[in-house]
């Protein structure tokens, strides 16, 4: 009879060490295994967070050799009463709402279509998910050329369908169009992600439920609203959560496309925060700003996860 | 030579070689990646040959130059032994201890600041401003200037059309308003079967572009940062009626005379617009003029240059940099050797010949200087009336505030010029209060 791997390891363990381990409780052994991870978590996540909270109550500037002063909640007061910060929050909210809206709408529709069995189904799925595989920096540069008013393909396509002069409008240079320009690009890039999650949801619905509905003579419309939508909803909500968190901290794509401009109309909070922290070097102020954003995302995400759990329980 | 003499010479030369080899260092010079940097690489080969040191170069593209280098300095990095840093960094470089103070070195080596153009010494070397505390040697004189399509300006048909449209002769603009008139004339005009545009100006949002462009107009209208230098009293200076008029002018120039889509353009985009034949005129730093003049498509006889036109006063936006020794470098002696070598008049002359802009008076006042390049007279004229942005240690905060207010007004069309300048004073006041200056 051959030894099991565990027996072999036990036999290879020196008697001294085996005695030591034998003397430890299960809880102690568990702690030994978990300790490195906990230490890493404390060092990489918790300590910087606490340090940031501490800095947020000071006037510290990382580029200056001057004594750091404790200024209480002044940074927080300044941020919350700064109209420019609120405009930045509005730009983020606009971006967040419309990207999620379009991605869910188009992503679900595509998933529903792809879920139908048809010839070339796999090929179309591959083509659709391609944008998601590109680097945001590449996508940003690529779309900057597409949006170029004199040579950009996007303007010529719009011109072809509407008859408007292609150089008469600037997608990334116009205050009214720029917020939509970044929504379009993010939607183009990340709709496939939502589609894949929805597709997983659609494919998880057992066929017999539809067969039972057919026997009960439920219409296709009724089947869609009473079977498909409720059963895909938890998946959809998960996709919304992922995209929400991701877009709240959107940086690279917007920097490449508009740099936050024209003016400040597309200056989402992450760009604004980066400018405060690493261009103006207002470290204390930027720390307070980061804490406010963290609390906002954490709070909203917690509420959302509770709602998601309730939907799952239904 | 006698045998003992030969022996002595051999020993001496061997000792000299050994000393030079022992002291040989690998120096790194940091600067922006642009045309003059290539000229400096060429020039520095002489230094390598003479000193035995090896020169390495770290050139960063302009949009990332400030971020990259200021991070390096703020973190006490040892990447750069020598840094050709922007003029606005001098305050932070001095107060934060990034740059070595050079007074004693200049005195010991007999380097006189009187040998360099006063405007460049003031702008690139001194902190506090105008005080005889030197943290850099003027290395690259520069200002914002203009260039135009001389062949179009000399075309009889275009000249006639301009005369019909404006009632005056087409020529190099002598005021800012004339510049706008010419730019608007060319806007959308068909020349050689292609649609052309008036002018390419700086509108970039991310780093310093729109501020460097718009201050060209502001200074020409007599803009001042303070009512009294050093008082930080900005009300009535920054937002004066003339400043408002200048800003409105720049906005109108942007809206009525630039190519479509030039909402975020700086040096590269300005050069591209001109080289691709899109615009009749463009603004850019003198540093690019040698390259433009040599361009096979739009250079030579096709290009002309002019200094920033005055409106109420003659003034140009200052560019350019001084060369400093980084205080965190372990090779400061060798770095100082480079500065000593670079300060020599013959090296400065070669620097100009290769395409760098020397600030040395022997070069600038040489009889043949004005004829040495088509843009040389304009360079001298510009450097006589240059004005620079704040050079305070908090310059980055001051600059980003101005970038935002100007871009919001000029490109994003939000609010009025008066509101933009009023808000700019509020922003700057907050910065100076934080700094404890007011």
TrEMBL record, chain A:
Keywords in alphabetical order: Membrane, Transmembrane, Transmembrane helix, Transport
Subcellular localization(s) per the UniProt record: Cell membrane
Matches recorded under PROSITE patterns: ABC_TM1
Keyword set includes Membrane: yes
CDD domains found in the cross-reference section: TM_PBP2 (cd06261)
Primary location: membrane
Domain ABC transmembrane type-1, first and last residues per copy: 89-304
Membrane topology: Multi-pass membrane protein
UniProt superkingdom: Bacteria
Protein name per Swiss-Prot or TrEMBL: ABC transporter permease
UniProtKB/TrEMBL annotation, chain B:
Gene3D superfamilies: Periplasmic binding protein-like II
Signal peptide: 1-24
Subcellular location: Periplasm
A GO CC term attached to the entry: periplasmic space
Keywords (A to Z) from UniProt: Signal, Transport
Alphabetical list of InterPro entries matching this protein: Bact_solute-bd_prot1, SBP
The UniProt record lists the keyword Lipid metabolism: no
Superkingdom per UniProt: Bacteria
Signal among keywords: yes
Major localization listed first in the record, in broad terms: periplasm
Family listed: Belongs to the bacterial solute-binding protein 1 family.
Name recorded for this polypeptide: ABC transporter substrate-binding protein
Organism in which the protein naturally occurs: Marinibacterium profundimaris
